[in-house]
Amino acid sequence: ASFANILASRGYNLIITGRRKEKIQKLANELSKKYNIKIDVIIAELSNEKDIKDIVKYISKTKNIDTLINNAGYSIYKNFSDSAVAENENMISVHILAVIKIINAVLPKMIRQGYGNIINVSSLGANIFANDAPIPLVAPVIIAILFNLFS
Q: Which InterPro entries match (predicted)?
């Protein structure tokens, strides 16, 4: 919400995604009214392949995208060794695969435009070493490596 508020206050039109419809719609309504901007809302669960495809499809129909902020994430708050494979697959989907797929959809558009910004938000946990590191701690490293390959 902080990023959306800052960008809205500067006159940016926004596309906001989130999984909690009421919360996202409320934010969109408040910012749209306060700053007189256009805000589109996409309700999506980033561990769901269909929802990611819906976001990518929407991006493909959008004329220009100035800035992409990847700010989704969650943690399961237990040691990696105590977590189920399905939990880790969901975290990989949200922290890594969704980010890559959305960047892949936005980047060609930004290159064609001749401008654009991509901001990948992490947590402080990404800077803390853990002997039994769960996915959120390694995901920013993987994203940084992949992003640097394409820079």
A: NAD(P)-bd_dom_sf, SDR_fam
d(CA 59, CA 23): 22
Answer for the pair 80, 106: CB distance below 8 angstroms, yes or no. Answer: no
Domain of 88, in residue numbers: 45-149
Encoding tokens for residue 109? 């558009």
- 3-class secondary-structure state, position 30: helix
Please say whether the dihedral angle defined by the alpha carbons of residues 15, 20, 22 and 27, taken in this order, is positive or negative.
negative
The pLDDT of 76-81, averaged and rounded, is: 75
Name the DSSP class of 127: G
- The count of domains in the chain is 2
- The residue that leads in pLDDT, 73 or 55, is 55
pLDDT in tens, 9-55: 999 999 999 999 999 999 999 999 999 999 999 999 988 999 999 99
CATH number at residue 100: 3.40.50.720
* Alpha carbon distance 95, 135 (integer Å): 8
- Out of 56-60, 97-101, 131-135, the most confident range is 56-60
